[in-house]
Here is the input.
Amino acid sequence: MQFIKKNYGWILVSILASLPLLVLFKMLQVDFFNGFSVSLIEGSGAEGKTTLEMLYHVSGEFAIRWMTAVLTCTPFFILFGVSNLYVRQAMGIATAIWSFIHFIIFIAAEGFLETFTQVNYIAGFIAVLLLIPLFFTSNRKSMRYLKDKWKKLQSLVYIIIFLSLLHIVLLEKTWLIYAIVVGLGLVLRIPVVKSYFIKRRKKRKTIQA
Ligand code: HEM
Here is the structure.
C-alpha cells in the first residue's frame, strides 16, 4: 500500500500508456505454432482506414501525445508549482516506446530502406534515433551518474519534437494542436515570462496562507 501511495503517479502513466496496446493487439494475429509469425487482421481498422493505416494512426498519435505531454511538465510546474520527476521519466519512456512501436510497424510493413525515400520519414527517423539515449537514461541511476550532463542530454527533446512535428506536417496529418501546446510551453519557459508566473504563484500562496 505504501509503495502504491508513493508511486501512484508513474504507475498511472504506465497503465495509461499500455492500454492502447490492447487496440494494437486486436489488429494483429500472432502465430506461435508454425515458428513465430505476426500478420494483420484485415478489416480491423476503423474510420475508413485499413488495418495498416490504423496501426500507423494509433502508434503515431500516442507517440506525439506523450511527447507533447512530457513537454508540458515544465510549464505545469511554472504555473502550479507541481512536479514529479518520476512521472516525467515514465512519460518520456512512454513516448520512446510508442515511437519505437510506430517505427517497427513501418519496418515490418515497408522495410527499413523505405525510411530514406521521403523527407518526412527521415525527419521521423532522426527523432527516433535521438530518443534512444533519452530512453536509456530516463532513470535515477543515469541521473546520478551523468549529473549536469543529464539535463543537457534531456534538452534533445526540443530537437525531437521539432522533427516529429515536421514529420507530421509533411504528412499533412493533425499537427496544429500539438504545435500550439508545445509553443505555449516554450513561451512560458522564456526567463521573464517564467519568473513572472512563478512570482505570481508564490504571491498567491502567501496570501492564502
Ligand atoms: C522512422 C521514423 C518514422 C517513420 C518511418 C514514420 C512513418 C509514418 C507513416 C508511414 C505514417 C502514415 C502516413 C499516412 O498515413 O499517410 C506516419 C504517420 C504518423 N506518424 Fe510517423 N513515422 C516515424 C516517426 C514518427 C515519430 C517520431 C512520431 C512522433 C513522435 C510520428 C508521428 C506520426 C503521426 C502523429 C502520424 C499520423 C497518424 C495519423 O493520424 O494517421 N512518427 N508515420
